[in-house]
Every structure is written in structure tokens, then in C-alpha cells.
Amino acid sequence: MLRATKHIAHRDTTKRVNYLCHKIVVSTNSQYSTLNYRYGGASSNQQQQGHGNGGKHHYYRHDFLAPHGPKAWTIPPNRGYGMVVVRILRGALKLRYLLLGGAIGGGMTLNKKYEDWKDGLPDLKWLEEALPQGEKWSQFSKTLIEIGGAVKDVIEIAKDDLKAKTTVAALSLSQDDSRRKYETLQSQVETLQTEIMNVQIKYQKELEKMEKENRELRQQFLILKQQKKTGTKKIKKSLIDMYSEVLDELSGYDTSYSMADHLPRVVVVGDQSSGKTSVLESIAKARIFPRGSGEMMTRAPVKVTLAEGPYHVAQFRDSEREYDLTKESDLAELRREVEFRMRASVRGGKTVSNEVISMTVKGPGLQRMVLVDLPGIISTMTVDMASDTKDSIHQMTKHYMSNPNAIILCIQDGSVDAERSNVTDLVMQCDPLGRRTIFVLTKVDLAEELADPDRIRKILSGKLFPMKALGYYAVVTGRGRKDDSIEAIRQYEEDFFKNSKLFQRRGVIMPHQVTSRNLSLAVSDRFWKMVRETIEQQADAFKATRFNLETEWKNNFPRLRESGRDELFDKAKGEILDEVVTLSQISAKKWEEALNDKLWDKLSNYVFENIYLPAAQSGSQNSFNTMVDIKLRQWAEQALPAKSVEAGWETLQKEFITLMEKAKKSPDHDDIFDNLKAAVVDESIRRHSWEDKAIDMLRVIQLNTLEDRFVHDKSEWDQAVKFLETSVKAKLAQTEETLSEMFGPGQFTRITHWKSLTEDQNKRRYVKNELDKILKNDDKHMPTLSYDELTTVRKNLQRENIEVDTDYIRQTWFPVYRRHFLKQALQRANDCRKAYYLYSQQGTDCDINCNDVVLFWRIQQVIRVTANALRQQVINREARRLDKEIKEVLDEFSEDEEKKAHLLTGKRVTLAEELIKVRQIQEKLEEFINSLNQEK
């Protein structure tokens, strides 16, 4: 009977213990679940604190202890024993509720994630043929049901086990062995804690498994969708790609930071080596940036557009190449290209640049957003940095953060003292209320070992820094190994937060505030919210700007179309190439006349000074001919071919420039192209060189021509005489000018122009008078004065009280004798004009000395054949080569924006450029808004 009574009492006690859960209220949200309960009318927080009114314990009325209805419970004498039992029951039951609440909340969260995922999928009706009867979706739902059942079974088993263990422990305790039983139960509680952690880990693994299946199905869906669209029409750009193009257009439009660009983007800022680049890589799921050992690697803003796609690839805005981010070789090439572009953007001794490097990263599961990675904030400059590096970084960072719609991703290194941070003050200046700042604490794995847990708790709760933020996140960006993959880093991060005592058992932050995955979800959500709030305002602003610019253009250039630099450059390019074509349309006669003139201009001085004058002044006909033959051959083998090519090239330049000058006089001429055309012509001429083989070809022709020493007919003779007279007269005119400068103006000029002779000119006139006497006495005088003649001249001048030295006399003699000789040459040419019959009969033995006519005939012949050869080379080869070089120069100029901006200037160009750019931006904004509204 006693045993039956005890059994009934035990059963009733168990029922009353179960009745303890009568007021459970479960509240769940998207990130975590909380469990509120009351114990005998008092809150659990009061029970846990166990103090109030001076710290004394309170005891409450418990209706469930009375077997025959509720009544007040009187404290028994052995109060310690009762309190031990109650505390053990409370601890065990609390674990039960936590387990039950966690399972229920987890199930609801899992169900919500599944519903959100299912709602986020596009219409799959068109996939019925590709996926018959929805087999994959049915399998996925079945997997969810099985996981829910498994979790429920684990919870029921743990619940029954806990209830049985706590009931038996509570009824079997005695006062003597209470301490021993309490320690045993505490050990059991710790065991249950471990089991709960294992259940959570199992739940997390199942969730990750479902996410992986989701990504795989999503990838298959995107591939099938892409294949379907490419078979019928061009793939429509994604929203994030369209938005990124707008930002790129704005970047090109606002290079000087003069315009207020308020479109949202995520600006990643932080101290140097704080881990901001690693955070960006973790969000992009690829190691896309170069690494350095303490060296500044980010030297320019890098705009990374993240988009979802079936393949994990990266691509620069101005390149067609795609880098496969699943291949380490492509990743290495991508990092090298990023480093090369960064260093190329730094010019003029600068360390950092404002030039934006734009790239797109696509892949399964990537959150859509636009991030801008900026150079890290520095407090100390090294000797290899430019003097303005620190200020330049501050100015650049402030500019990007000052955008009222920019999301500031403030990166703080958790492994260093918070007081050493430079970026927090800068962020606080730009966003004092923290309405668009997200704080990220990196390297928390190191912080857990090195830093005070209370300081970390304060940082992540927003109580350590005066800076405010929308949210606070903790991430792990790696283990300090450069070769770790993103998958390894993410696994390390997840393992750390699962096992960390600081982040799991002490409750520093909520679960949704850790890991890079949760961070990317939060940033993407905030990014698109701001995009939807601000995009239409920016479109209206550009619409107004476009209207103002169009009005200004109509008022200033009513009859012209808005042509930007690229269009103007193309027009100028066509005109220049047309002028090159006209070179081949110049007649052969005109080419030969121009080449003849240029050749004689280049060769005349050598012919007179090195060939004709030395031979003619030799004193005899035989020596004249011998000397001429020797010198002509030497000349033809060495200097003549090179000089001929030089003359040909200068003639080609002259004719081309002449054509360009004529084009300026055309009624359709547009002077806006003048600077560009002149620069292209100058650069092309500087690069152009005549073909080397042309010299060898000319050498053979010229040697063969000079071998002919006999004038063949009267017409050639007359031409040679005329050529000789013209050439001698030209030299005589030059000599007369020299004499005029040496001796001063004549009597008539001095009187009419009020000029007088200088002392030197007077002295030279006295010397000239003495020299004229010598030439008068000896009409065939040699070109040099003898010693006796020099002495005689000096003595005669001394009688006139004029002192001169022999060098002074020789300097005066040279032009005086040359004029005398040239006048004799003109006389001989005149005598030889009618002597062709005697020459043809007697040859070199002719009574009249006409060797100089024969010499100039030979020179004339070699010039004629050379001009003909050069003309053929110009038409057949050199004009085409020049055309090719001009095209190369134009291609180089077309790729050099600075060169085009320098050569194509003026209000007309700048206004057209701005109008075209604003029009493009506004059209892209409207296209993006339409697509955004359709997505809603």
C-alpha cells in the first residue's frame, strides 16, 4: 500500500512539474528566437538575479505543489535542501526550454528561409520541359520534411531523457548526500549542453547542405535561362550591370570631383593593413587583389561590381577577357593585371591616383552590389612615398564618403588597440549620425587571444567608439596565409565562431552579426534600399542639366551638330588620309621639277667648292678632267646617294605640307582640326625614313651616268650652258653680297641712305685696291697669293699708314678672286654657247676651253636620272609608307585621351563633350529605372 501511494505521489509530482511550462511564449524573427516564461508569477530574470530590496531572496506562491488545490507554501526548516532541489530543477528545465525553443525557432527560420528562397526564384513555367514534373523541387521539399522530422525526434528524445533524469534526481535526493547528487546533476547538465551544441552543429550542416543544393539548382536555372535567351535574342543586362555602367559613366564625367554624384555605392575604408581588401575578397568569394608584405598595394580606387551568374568569372570594364576565378592560373594573372593597372595609373611621381579601376565579378550566390576599395588610411609616410600621399588619401576617402548616399563599410582591425585607428574619426566627420555606416571588426580570432573581452564587447555593441553605425559585424578574414583559398578562409571563419567561447557562450553579439556571409547580405540589402530611394532624383537632376546644355548649344552653335572629340578626331583623320592620297595624284613632271630643284639646292655647294673650283683653278685642261673624274667618282660612291635620298625625303615633306596648307584655304575648312593635323604631320615626318635599299640602287644609277663624258646633241649642250650660267650667276650674286658686307655700300648708296663706312670697311677698301692691281696685271692669276705678293701689299698699305697682317689680306683676297674667276667663267660659258660644232668635231682638244660646260652637263644628267628614280620611289613606295605611318600615328593619338584633349580644344568641343556625356548618363539612368520598376 505504501509503495502504491509513493508511486501515485511520484506521478502527481511529474504532472505538476510539467505544468510549470504553462506560460511559454515563443517569438521568432529572421535572425534569432527568444523564449519568455514565468515561474510562479515572477519573471525568470528576477529568479536569476535573486536579489532586490537589499539583495534578499524572495519566495513565491506555487500553486502546483498543493495536492488538493492552491495554498501558501511555508518554508520548511531545512530550507537549504529545498533550495538546492529547486535550483537543480530550474536549471534542468531551462535547458529543456532552450532546446525546445531553439528547435522551434530554427524550424521556423528554416521554413522562412525556404519560403523566401522559393519566392525569390523567377517564373519556372518555361522549365517544365527541361525539368519534367518538378522532380528536383519535390526532392528538395521531401528533404526539408525529413530534416524537420529528424530534428523533432532528437528534441523529443532529449526532452524525455531530461524529464526522467531530473524527476528521479529530485525525488531520490536526501539531505546527507545532497552535495554529491548536486555535482552529479551539474555534470549531467554540462553533458546536455554538449548535446545541444551537437544538435545545433548538425542543424547548421543540414542548412548548409540545403544552401549548397539551392546554389546548384540556381546555377542550373541560370544556365538554362541563359541558353534559352541566347537562342532567341540578346541577353538583357542585369540590374547591377546596368547600375555599374551608370557609375562608370559618372566616373568619366566627374574626373575632377567637381560634380555632386549622389548615387549609392559601398565605400570600403579602413586603416592600411586593417583587412578591408580581405573583407571585399570574402564578399566576392575570390582572391582577386595582389598581396604585399606591409607595402601599400591599393594605390587607386577599385570599383568591383558583384553580380550573380552561373560561372565564377571576373572581367575589366575595358577588356573582353574573362578570368576564370576557379583556376589559380587565371587568379594569378588577374592579380598581376590589377597591380599593373594600379602602377600605370600613378604618374608624375605620385603614390596614389584618383583614376578608377573598374571590374565585374560574377558567380553563383554573390550578392548584387557595387563596392569601391580605397587606399588605406596612413598615419606615417615612408621615404619612397610622394610628399602629398597622406593628404591625397584623406581627400580621396572624404570625397567618396561625403556622398550622402554612400554606404560606408568601416573596417577596424580587431587585433590592434582601438585607439590606434585613424579611420573612425574620419567616418564620424562624414556620417556623424551613423545612418549609412556599417562597422566591421576584422581579425577577431586574433582579438580573442590578445584583447580584453570587455573591450571587444564594447566595440561590437557600439559603446567604445563615439562613432555611430547601422550595424556592427565581426568577421575573420584568414589565418595570415597568403595561399589560403576563400573556401578555406570561410571554413576557418565558421569553425571559429562555432567554437569560440567569447562569441558563443558569453553572448557578446547576436548570431546574425558574425561571418562574412551575413555581412554581405546586410550590405546588399542596405545598398538596394538606398538605390531605390535615390535613383529617380538623380535622373531628374541629369534631365535638367541636359536641358540647360542643349539650350546653351543652340544659342552658341545653331548650325552645327554636337560632335564630341572622338567624332571630330575621326573626321580629321579622314581629311589627313585624303591629303595623303592626293600625293599620288601629283603629276610626274611636277615631281621631277620639285626633285631637281631640291637636289641642286642640296648639291650645288659641294659641286662648286669641292669639284668645279678646284679643277677649274688647276691651270690646264688635262688636270681639270682628271681631277673632275676622280672627285665625281668619290662623290657618287659616298655622299651623293645619301644626299639624294635626303633631298627626296625633304621634297616629299614639302609637297605634303603644301597640300595641307592648300586644304586650309578651302571653303569647307574647319580650323578646329589645325592643331591636330599639324601634330600628326610632324610626328609622321619625324618617324619616316627612306628605305635603305634606295641608296644602293641610286649609287649604281649615278655611277653609270657619270661615266658618260660626251654631250650627245646641241639641245643638251645648250641646256648645259644655261645651267652653267645660272649656277655661276647664283654664286656670283652670293659673292657680291659678301663683298658688299666686307667693303660697305657704294658712294651713291651712302649719300642717298645717309650711311658711312666703318673703320674696318675703309681698311678693306685699301686692301682691295692693292689686290685689284695684282689681278689686273695677271688675268690668269692662281687662286692663292705668293709670299712676295703678300709682302708687296703690306708695304704699299704701310705707306698709307695702314697696318694689316697676311691673314687679313688673304681673307680679303678670297671673295675678290672668286668674283674675278666667276666673271671669267661666265665669259667662257658665253664663248662656248656657239662652240658645240667645234666640240663635236674635236672633242676635248677643242680650241675653246669648254670643260666646265661638259662638267655641268654631267652634273645635270646625274641630277635628272636621280630625280626620275626618286619620283618612282615616292609614287611606288614612300607615299604608301608615309600613309601607313600616318595611320599608325593617328591610331596612337586616338587611344591617348590626353593627347586628343590637348589637340582638340575650345568651347565648342568641351560643351559638346559634356552634352553627349550627360545625355548618355540620363538615358542609362532611365533604362535602369525602368528595369528596376519591372523587378519590383
Q: Which strands sit side by side, in order, in the main sheet?
A: 8-7-9-6-10-5-11-12-13
- The fraction of residues in strands falls at 5-15%
Gross morphology: elongated
Task: Give the radius of gyration.
Answer: 50 Å
Number of strands: 13
Low-confidence stretches: 1-79, 95-100, 126-133, 168-173, 228-235
Q: End-to-end span in angstroms?
A: 74 Å
**Portion of residues in helices?**
55-70%
Average pLDDT across residues?
A: 76
Total of DSSP H or I helical runs spanning 4+ residues: 30
Largest beta sheet, briefly?
9 strands, mixed
Please state the structural category: alpha/beta
Characteristic key phrases:
13 strands; transmembrane; single chain; disordered N terminus; Rossmann fold; 936 residues; two-stranded antiparallel sheet; 30 helices; coiled coil; Dynamin-like GTPase OPA1, mitochondrial; nine-stranded mixed beta sheet; alpha/beta
Compact summary:
Helix content is 64%, strand content 6%.
Explained architecture:
The chain is an alpha/beta fold. It is 64% helix and 6% strand. A hairpin with a 6-residue loop joins β7 and β8 (323-324). The longest helix has 55 residues, at 178-232. The chain is elongated. The model is unreliable at 1-79, 95-100, 126-133, 168-173 and 228-235 (pLDDT under 50).
Question: What layout of secondary structure does this protein have?
Answer:
Blueprint (H helix, E strand, L loop, with lengths): L1 H17 L6 E4 L4 E4 L1 E2 L2 E2 H6 L29 H42 L14 H38 L5 H55 L6 H15 L12 E5 L5 H9 L17 E7 L4 E4 L6 E2 L3 H18 L11 E7 L5 E5 L15 H14 L4 E7 L9 H8 L6 E6 L1 H7 L2 H8 L10 E4 L11 H14 L1 H4 L11 H41 L8 H19 L4 H29 L4 H17 L1 H26 L9 H14 L5 H14 L7 H30 L3 H6 L6 H19 L9 H13 L6 H27 L3 H7 L8 H45 L1 H7 L3 H29 L1
Parallel strand pairs: 5-10, 5-11, 6-9, 11-12, 12-13
Antiparallel strand pairs: 1-2, 3-4, 6-10, 7-8, 7-9
Helix pairs in contact: 3-4, 3-5, 4-5, 6-30, 15-30, 16-19, 16-28, 17-18, 17-19, 17-28, 18-21, 19-20, 19-21, 19-28, 20-28, 21-28, 22-26, 22-28, 24-25, 24-26
